[in-house]
Every structure is written in C-alpha cells, then in structure tokens.
C-alpha cells in the first residue's frame, strides 16, 4: 500500500511531462501515451482513495483521531506503570525468598556442625 502512495507523485510527474513536451502538435502516439499515463494516474488515485476510506477509523475527524491517540497513549503509560509495579513486586518477592533460603541453609549448616 505504501508503494502505491509513493508512486502517485511519479505518475503525476509523468503526466505533466507528457502534457508539456515541446514536440509541436501532438502526434497520435503522444496523445495515446498521455491518455495511458493519465488513466494510470487516475486509477492509482482511485485505488489510494479506496484504501484511505476503508481504513479502520478513517471516518473519524482529525480531532477525533487525536482524542483516540491521546487515550491510547494514556492507556499505554498506565500499562507500563502496572508492568513496572509488577516487576518490582516480583523482584522483592524473589529477594525475600532468596534471603529466606539463605537463612534456612545457615540454620542447617549450624545444626550439622554442632557436636551431639
């Protein structure tokens, strides 16, 4: 789809170039080339228009699109904060679990080395 939009300028330039060539009166071949080039450009514009009008949210105004973008950015930031909080809690649980295991190991070691 992107290549379609990128090709529009080249196709328009081709039409303008064919229309403004300095050959004196238009020959039948030049007229046909201009007609073909113009039709190709017109078809591409029509196809690009169809793509643009069928995009999800394409019916929204610019202001409505900006509102949706703002809402999505806020949602993304909230999710990012939730993920950071979750990661922090997991880290603290892991740290406390590691400390508990170290305490248990020390307890076992001290019991094992005590003479009976």
Automatic annotation (TrEMBL):
Q: Give the InterPro entries listed for this entry.
A: Med9
Biological-process GO terms, alphabetical? regulation of transcription by RNA polymerase II
Annotated coiled-coil segments of the chain:
62-89
Q: Which family does it belong to?
A: Belongs to the Mediator complex subunit 9 family.
Instruction: List the keywords (alphabetical).
Output: Activator, Coiled coil, Nucleus, Transcription, Transcription regulation
Record keyword Lyase present: no
- Gene designation: MED9
GO CC, any one term: mediator complex
GO MF, any single term: transcription coregulator activity
**Quaternary form?**
Component of the Mediator complex.
Where is it predominantly found? nucleus
Q: Is Nucleus found in the keyword set?
A: yes
Q: What is known about what this protein does?
A: Component of the Mediator complex, a coactivator involved in the regulated transcription of nearly all RNA polymerase II-dependent genes. Mediator functions as a bridge to convey information from gene-specific regulatory proteins to the basal RNA polymerase II transcription machinery. Mediator is recruited to promoters by direct interactions with regulatory proteins and serves as a scaffold for the assembly of a functional preinitiation complex with RNA polymerase II and the general transcription factors.
Q: Where is this region: Disordered?
A: 96-116
What is the organism of origin for this protein? Pycnoporus cinnabarinus (Cinnabar-red polypore)
Enumerate the subcellular locations listed in this protein's record, separating them with semicolons. Nucleus
Question: What's the name of the protein?
Answer: Mediator of RNA polymerase II transcription subunit 9
């Amino acid at each position: 789809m992107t290549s379609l939009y990128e090709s529009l300028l080249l196709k328009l330039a081709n039409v303008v170039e064919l229309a403004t060539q300095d050959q004196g009166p238009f020959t039948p071949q030049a007229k046909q080339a201009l007609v073909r080039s113009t039709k190709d450009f017109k078809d591409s514009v029509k196809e690009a228009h169809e793509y643009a009008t069928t995009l999800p949210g394409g019916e929204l105004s610019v202001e409505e699109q900006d509102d949706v973008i703002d809402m999505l950015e806020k949602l993304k930031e909230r999710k990012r904060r939730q993920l950071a909080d979750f990661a922090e809690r997991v880290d603290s649980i892991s740290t406390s679990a590691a400390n508990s295991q170290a305490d248990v190991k020390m307890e076992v070691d001290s019991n094992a080395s005590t003479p009976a």
